[in-house]
Q: What sequence folds into this?
């Protein structure tokens, strides 16, 4: 069958291939400890599950839902943004519930980007930004995030890229950013957010800020929409996948000005319908949880992170202890050619899988990423298996 040209250069997702290899090794009796994937293993709060159970038992909740989501969920999102991020969002016009942040990335690309235009994506960064821009027909252009710059964009480099593309007739119309950053765990500063908003206004660029990690190992969740004037040029994506242990539920949100929401809805309403109402009501319940919930979840991740630090020390990796999100990002020792060499060495010698940083872009070639989504005992077991190199 002839494939559409838009799939040129879009391969199978790295993890889907790697999981097959790990499966095969497990069939051979290897019992691999997989510290690769960032899917929270802990359950949502019991009240969230209870809400889903009770609501789904009702007879009047099974119909199609409004394209813009249930008002109950939109109100809960609005209150959540106010309470944690000090951002005012009109629940009727400035919020669009999503089936996870990932689908929002695609919808935004299909709404705004097309052939003949460039879109800036972080290197290293979440691989979906690159593939979604490619699928839209636009030209994804990597900008570098370097450890020596605290993984903040170099605005001089951004400017150069924009100028270079302009002179070849290609306007730059979008910029993906994500803080706390995945995979590096870098936290944002207010100063960075202000600079980004000023840059977007000056260069007439749409910023897509992807913000799913702000509650994980971070006491100060921040939204880019809290910067004055941000709604003019920023769309923010957020998600319950990590903050509320609901990755499989597929609940996220897109926040921005009424104009942006209406524009994206024009695309999205042709793709799907509102989510199952009991899922939306349970998500609203999750968003009403207080600080105790986040403290409880984070105390588990904090203990796991200590174990991961120890494991990385056995491997002679270097890393910052001040990282947020579900992973630890670490520089590999010089004895390895690159991150793939290091990851394969650990997999084949010690039956532990850690993610090579290069899958997030070439700037990750000398790094690995270790997930915290694994029981502390398993991380300890992984550490015991690794013989110092
Ligand atoms: C940076 C980043 N953005 C978005 C997502 C997708 O999140 P969701 O489950 O809300 O689609 C992930 C998932 O791993 C991620 O790491």
A:
């Amino acid at each position: 069958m002839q494939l559409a040209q838009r799939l040129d250069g879009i391969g199978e997702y790295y993890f889907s291939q790697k999981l097959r290899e790990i499966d095969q090794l497990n069939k051979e009796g290897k019992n691999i400890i997989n510290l690769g994937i960032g899917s929270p293993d802990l359950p949502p709060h019991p009240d969230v599950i209870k809400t889903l159970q009770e609501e789904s038992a009702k007879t009047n909740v099974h119909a199609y839902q409004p394209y813009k989501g249930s008002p109950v969920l939109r109100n809960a999102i609005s209150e959540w943004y106010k309470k944690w991020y000090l951002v005012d969002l009109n629940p009727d016009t400035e919020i669009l519930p999503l089936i996870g942040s990932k689908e929002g990335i695609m919808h935004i690309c299909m709404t705004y980007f097309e052939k003949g235009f460039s879109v800036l994506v972080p290197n290293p960064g979440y691989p979906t930004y690159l593939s979604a821009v490619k699928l839209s027909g636009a030209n994804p252009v990597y900008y570098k995030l370097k450890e020596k710059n605290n993984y903040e964009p170099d605005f001089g480099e951004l400017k150069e890229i924009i100028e270079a593309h302009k002179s070849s007739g290609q306007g730059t119309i979008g910029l993906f950013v994500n803080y706390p950053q995945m995979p590096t765990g870098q936290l944002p500063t207010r100063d960075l957010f202000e600079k980004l908003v000023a840059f977007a206004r000056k260069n007439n660029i749409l910023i897509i800020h992807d913000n799913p990690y702000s509650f994980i190992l971070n006491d100060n969740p921040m939204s880019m929409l809290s910067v004055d004037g941000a709604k003019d040029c920023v769309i923010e994506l957020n998600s319950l996948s990590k903050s509320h242990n609901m990755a499989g539920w597929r609940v996220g949100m897109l926040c921005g000005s009424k104009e942006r929401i209406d524009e994206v809805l024009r695309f999205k309403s042709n793709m799907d319908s509102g989510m199952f109402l009991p899922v939306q009501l349970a998500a609203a319940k999750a968003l009403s949880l207080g600080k105790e919930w986040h403290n409880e979840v984070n105390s588990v991740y904090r203990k796991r992170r200590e174990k991961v630090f120890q494991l990385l020390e056995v491997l002679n990796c270097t890393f910052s202890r001040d990282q947020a999100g579900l992973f630890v990002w670490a520089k590999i020792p010089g004895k390895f050619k690159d991150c793939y060499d290091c990851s394969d060495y650990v997999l084949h010698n010690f039956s532990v899988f850690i993610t090579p940083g290069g899958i997030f872009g070439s700037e990750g070639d000398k790094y690995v990423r270790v997930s915290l989504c694994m029981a502390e005992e398993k991380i300890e077991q992984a550490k015991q298996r690794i013989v110092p190199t």
User: Anything to note?
Assistant: The mean pLDDT is 96.
